[in-house]
Amino acid sequence: MARSLRSHTKKRTRALKREQIFKPVEDARLARLAQAQADAAKKPSVGDFMEEEKEVAASSTADADAMTEEEPKKKISTSGPRSNRHARKLKEKKKKGKKSAIKF
């Protein structure tokens, strides 16, 4: 007969795999992530970078404003054209007209 997952041998095999196979892989992954986190902590944060960009951008916005005032922005349609099939069906529906409900 087959052994169930609760049998002593199956439990022992899973415990050995956990200790000998999966644990070293997990430890190596944890070390890699810890190293990556330490490297990321040394880099400047996103907020600091954004503040520097604002200072640089403040001086260049005066030039950019002069250029944008001359050229108005063109509106872009976000609704795409309807398919020809849809338009054809609408025409056919209009052409048929309304039928009366009562027939003799």
UniProtKB/TrEMBL annotation:
Residues 1-20, 36-104 are annotated as: Disordered. Residues 1-15, 83-104 have a biased composition (Basic residues). It comes from the Eukaryota. InterPro entries: DUF2423 (IPR019434). Residues 1-44 form the DUF2423 domain. It holds the Pfam family YBL028C_N. Coiled coil: none annotated. Its EC number is 1.8.1.4. One of its GO terms (cellular component) is preribosome, large subunit precursor. Keywords: Oxidoreductase. GO terms for molecular function: dihydrolipoyl dehydrogenase (NADH) activity. This is Dihydrolipoamide dehydrogenase. It comes from Mucor velutinosus. The lineage of its organism: Eukaryota, Fungi, Fungi incertae sedis, Mucoromycota, Mucoromycotina.
